[in-house]
Specification:
The chain is of the alpha+beta class. It has 3 domains: about 90 residues, Alpha-Beta Plaits; about 160 residues, Sulfite Reductase Hemoprotein, domain 1 (2-Layer Sandwich), CATH 3.30.413.10; about 55 residues, Alpha-Beta Plaits (2-Layer Sandwich), CATH 3.30.70. The protein is about 25% helix and about 20% strand. The protein is built from 11 helices and 14 strands. Strands 1-2-3-5-4 form a 5-stranded antiparallel β-sheet, with helices on one face. The protein is globular, with a radius of gyration of 24 Å. It starts with about 20 loop residues before the first helix and ends in an 8-residue tail after the last helix. The structure holds iron/sulfur cluster (SF4) (2 copies). The site of one iron/sulfur cluster has 13 residues, from loops. The site of one iron/sulfur cluster (SF4) has 13 residues, from loops.
Length: about 350
């Protein structure tokens, strides 16, 4: 009897990256002896096989038009053996197999407006979320804040004279898909959503929206004879989580949606455990196109850290050592009762939800 044919699994995930690697990286995969940094923006890897690779890192604006991508690919073809890759912070890296190719590649990148740097103890490129270009719920732009801020931190990207690596990020809603960073800029809504009751019944799945609220502040309600929703404003923490599944619950507001700065997050296990960020500046105006108030606060934190931290202290290590009172003294940020949660209070607040239990 014929055996039944097994259906082949269809894998539509990420393709195997090794097919795209520079041939020397592929050949020496997992066989590296050591690496060093001959200058800011250049990594030099030496393999046990004797092969050497130089990686030149440059900053980009992350969200790129086709002609910029073509330009970067032309530089790769002409100066860098035809291979590029992007790092997790949206820097671009070109790999070459001889030291003689490094200087012409750097010269061409700088001439084309891509600064070389972002390695070692520098301020690396800001990781930013999608902003107005791709996402449907942002309260501000993310790439715009990045451009404004990196224009001011340009030299810190090109040099390696911070105490340790500094990662910055921006997130354009409070869902914060930007993740943890040494310094993060995150939208902060300060008023509950305004509900357009005429649209709720046609647009929103009400049980889904009710279930979405982390503090159980949303209830089904009949308004003008139509099924709609109501928000208990005393409970609402203005997180914005109800807006994506129910756009008639508009929370973005030109005046009341602000920006906040959080510090001390990191993902790595190097030297100390990963840490979560804490909010240290609240209610900064969402002020495009240059966001000057945000730039000033970020630079205040960055340069206080640079002046005071010991070698190899990450921003969170520095704060742990000096303590929060001195952090606010040195950065000259105003300390208010809204800033640092003692977590015992948060435990009680969050436990008001039917969805979060400790
Ligand atoms: S931070 Fe929020 S608005 Fe911005 S891209 Fe992420 S989910 Fe979208
Ligand atoms: S989901 Fe967030 S913004 Fe919406 S009602 Fe609940 S707490 Fe308020």
């Amino acid at each position: 009897m014929a055996q039944p044919q097994m259906r082949r699994a269809t894998e539509s995930g990420v393709p195997d990256n090794r097919q795209f690697l520079h041939p020397l990286l592929k050949k020496n995969y997992g066989n590296w002896k050591y690496h060093d940094r001959p200058r800011p923006g250049v990594l030099h890897h030496v393999s046990h096989s004797g092969d050497e690779v130089w990686s030149v890192r440059a900053g980009t604006q992350r969200q790129m038009d086709v002609s910029t991508i073509r330009k970067l690919c032309d530089i790769a073809d002409q100066y860098a053996e035809g291979h590029v890759r992007f790092t997790i912070r949206s820097n671009i890296e070109f790999m070459v197999s001889s030291a003689a190719k490094v200087a012409p590649l750097i010269a061409e990148l700088e001439k084309s407006g891509f600064p070389v740097g972002g390695t070692g103890n520098s301020v690396s490129m800001i990781a930013h979320t999608q902003g107005w270009l791709h996402c449907d719920i942002p309260g501000t732009d993310a790439s715009g804040v990045v451009k404004a801020l990196m224009d001011e931190l340009y030299d810190e990207f090109r040099r390696e004279d911070m105490p340790n690596r500094v990662h910055l990020s921006t997130s354009c809603c409070e869902i914060n898909c930007g993740g943890q960073a040494d310094i993060a800029i995150i939208v902060q809504h300060t008023k509950p959503p305004k509900i357009n009751h005429d649209l709720v019944a046609n647009v929103c799945e009400r049980p889904a929206v009710v279930a979405r609220c982390p503090v159980a502040a949303i209830r089904p309600a009949l308004v003008n004879g139509k099924p709609s929703l109501e928000v208990d404003e005393k409970k609402c923490i203005c997180c914005g989580a109800c807006y994506p599944p129910c756009p008639p619950m508009q929370i973005n507001d030109p005046e009341h949606s602000k920006l906040a700065i959080w510090v001390g997050g990191k993902n790595s296990n190097a030297r100390a455990k990963p840490t979560f960020m804490k909010m240290v500046a609240a209610g900064l105006p969402n002020n495009p196109p240059r966001w000057p108030e945000v730039s000033e606060a970020v630079k205040g934190i960055l340069y206080a850290y640079k002046a005071d931290a010991r070698p190899w202290e990450r921003l969170s290590d520095w704060i742990d050592r000096i303590g929060w009172p001195r952090f606010f003294e040195r950065t000259e940020l105003p300390f208010t009762k809204y800033l640092i949660d003692d977590w015992r209070g948060a435990r009680a607040n969050l436990n008001a939800s039917t969805h979060i239990r400790f």
